[in-house]
Design brief:
The chain is of the alpha+beta class. It has one domain: Thiol Ester Dehydrase, Chain A (Roll), CATH 3.10.129. Helix content is 23%, strand content 43%. It contains 3 helices and 7 strands. Strands 1, 2, 3, 4, 5, 6 and 7 form a 7-stranded mixed sheet that branches. The longest helix has 18 residues. The radius of gyration is 16 Å and the shape is elongated. The two termini are 30 Å apart.
Amino acid sequence: MFSRKFTVRWSDLDANAHMRNTAYMEYAMQVRVAFFEENGFPVAEFARFRFGPVVFRDELVYLKELHLLEEIEVNLLLAGLSSDGARFVLENHIFRAADGKEAAYVRSEGAWLNLETRKLMAPPEKLHQVLSALGRTGSFAEMAAGSK
């Protein structure tokens, strides 16, 4: 399982003094970018191949509040992948470091978009292998091929 630790910042808070919804999404995205970078696909590599991820749907579920200066751990798991690697479902689970309780999770459904044709595509084989090797959720599901 891939994960990163963070500290809740002042700018992450809403008017109720707990973490705002967009901050959860930003931490989830940061962990995804770090995962791809550490596995041979930094942002420059996506630019070089002229493709990138497109998200069709995000779901954010709150379980516990997070507050200023709390340490959190955000992990990344694979919840679904098409046989050609073109479509995917990623989940980020966010835990409070102090007690290990899950505070929220983000479930994102997406695909790879060719930036020139503006059509879905299967990723390079290396990226398909990287995604396939990511830790899986208990509810992982194989998806139909999606680049056609």
